């Protein structure tokens, strides 16, 4: 799994990166193929936002969350990604073909 972190309008944080990697290891169980994940943390007008963009050979899934803290937003976005991947797996076909 290749993970790319982006921090917009804030300093990078080792603590956030480690927490995100722990959450993303759970997502890695759903896809056997190589996965590329872009994690974007942004801060604007006291609103914290996390966006996860997951790309694999079969799927391209995006989830985002806004809230009070980055850790809660990351948990919520990761839960959304996992539920989308579960739906894909149960259907037996990709949600959207990755380009």
Please give a quick description of this structure:
With 99 residues, the chain is α+β, with helices and mostly antiparallel strands. The chain is built from 2 helices and 4 strands.
Detailed description of the structure:
It is a single chain. With 99 residues, the protein is of the alpha+beta class. The protein has one domain: Ribosome hibernation promotion factor-like (Double Stranded RNA Binding Domain), CATH 3.30.160. It is 36% helix and 33% strand. It contains 2 helices and 4 strands. A 4-stranded mixed β-sheet has the order 1-2-3-4, with helices on one face. Helix 1 links the parallel strand 1 and strand 2. The two termini are 18 Å apart. The mean pLDDT is 85.
Q: Helical proportion?
A: 25-40%
Unreliable runs: none
CATH superfamily membership: Ribosome hibernation promotion factor-like
The CATH C-level class name: Alpha Beta
Overall 3D shape: globular
- The termini sit apart by 18 Å
CATH 2nd-level architecture: 2-Layer Sandwich
Q: Sketch the topology as an H/E string, one letter per element.
A: EHEEEH
Please indicate the percent range of residues in DSSP E strands (runs of 2 or more).
25-35%
